[in-house]
Amino acid sequence: MSKAQALVVDDETDILDLIKITLGRMDVQASTALTVADAKRQLQRGRFDLCLTDMNLPDGSGIDFLQHLSERYPSIPVAMITAHGSTESAVAAMKAGAFDFVAKPVDLKLLRNLVESALKLRGAAAPSDEAGGSGVRLLGDSPAMEQIRHLIAKLARNQAPVFVTGESGTGKELAARLIHAQGPRHEGPFVAVNCGAIPQELVESELFGHRKGSFTGAVGDKEGLFQAAEGGTLFLDEVADLPLLAQVKLLRAIQEKSVRPVGAQQEVPVNVRIISASHRDLNAEVEQGNFRQDLFYRINVIELRMPALRERPEDIALLAEQILSRLSQAQGSGTNASPWRLTAKAIEALKRHPFPGNVRELENALERATALADGDVIEVEDLYLAKCESKQARAPSASPGLDDSQPLEDYLSEVEKQAILSALDETHWNRTAAARKLGMTLRSLRYRLAKLGIE
Ligand SMILES: Nc1ncnc2c1ncn2[C@@H]1O[C@H](COP(=O)(O)OP(=O)(O)OP(=O)(O)O)[C@@H](O)[C@H]1O
């Protein structure tokens, strides 16, 4: 591939020189411009793979110039050079379509990371399929799903923090994986963490790492999840569950693009894209003082809302077919064709069901049905959907009575199962919230789910 070309626009010649030298060492040819007018002229004459522009230029604003670029030259990734500590301008730039930003005074390591990511968007390194080789796919032909796929492809091309919202089980993590897999970071790690599952006192050390001896139990240096995601994406699931103190540190890490491990003197620069998610309404959490407004503002640069399954019932048949085929492969039939078939009535029943637990609930219902069906045809009754619709049916008082023929062990398992299903239902299949409701740890709930064959 020919030498990469960058256009750098800034009215400070010192910064232009610094960036030009740094890029030159990366084998990137940089052309410089002091004004918007000059930059526009150069764009007409040359071909560029990347543009870095200051926010305030003598003859116009960087945001207006960015908009000009995204209309006329949409394939050029644009990074904004922002004033030190100006969160507003960094967020505004990314909302306006900037690929990333670098704050003054320019940190050369961060600049190099940014340029590397931008150049990966050039042809060769871009993943060819939707899954980016990850094997992950978001199924569904509904207009809502088409739109999500389109948005994901767009979001994959920049570095802005994305906040994925949606009920439990709507595919928030799957969407995050796809943004990672289709973007320039796809060769780097994708690290997912459920913020609600980390004990409060360990959050900081888990996220940022710790030095040996920094607290009782810190027997050696440990790298944090930020460091583990270096060069890739960190997915902060259930971000609303982060304690307030950890929120302050997270904000700092995102703003400064560096972290300080617990007990360390020095900050360590990190090159990580943040995608976060929550099934909760973060605006409400901010209003109630449970979530910091400044952090919300920073992680919610772009919002991606995953639709509930009941908003797109036309996707259910296709999803069900794929899930059954995956189950059959997992159970060793070794073919793509599913040995199971849903009757027309069963498909209709699935389409009418409200699915509070969304695609995950559909997966669970089908897995249960394959175990219960006689032969290869799945009937409405095998789906046990009525149970999910009626909370009463699950209440312990409605649990099956102990009869003489039933061993006590089975009876107790059934009661336990009903209580767990009921809590999951009430929390829209959010396992962290369900565990809290049941007064057990998430780990313990997971163990029970596995034991009872619910997952
Ligand atoms: N559109 C889809 N196509 C295929 N599978 C999907 C789709 N949406 C969700 N799934 C599947 O549903 C399950 C739940 O998805 P995922 O974990 O991404 O949801 P989530 O919204 O992050 O859930 P939670 O809020 O509980 O963390 C996964 O097994 C995922 O593969």
Automatic annotation (TrEMBL):
Keywords per UniProt: ATP-binding, DNA-binding, Nucleotide-binding, Phosphoprotein, Transcription, Transcription regulation
Gene3D superfamilies documented for this protein: 1.10.8.60, 3.40.50.2300, Homeodomain-like, P-loop containing nucleotide triphosphate hydrolases
Protein name (record): Sigma-54-dependent Fis family transcriptional regulator
Organism: Thiorhodococcus minor
Domain called Sigma-54 factor interaction: residue spans: 138-371
GO MF annotation terms: ATP binding; sequence-specific DNA binding
GO biological process, one term: phosphorelay signal transduction system
PTM sites of type 4-aspartylphosphate: D54
Ranges for domain Response regulatory: 5-119
InterPro entries, sorted: AAA+_ATPase (IPR003593), AAA_lid_NorR (IPR058031), CheY-like_superfamily (IPR011006), Homeodomain-like_sf (IPR009057), HTH_Fis (IPR002197), P-loop_NTPase (IPR027417), Sig_transdc_resp-reg_receiver (IPR001789), Sigma_54_int (IPR002078)
CDD domains per the UniProt record, alphabetical: AAA (cd00009)
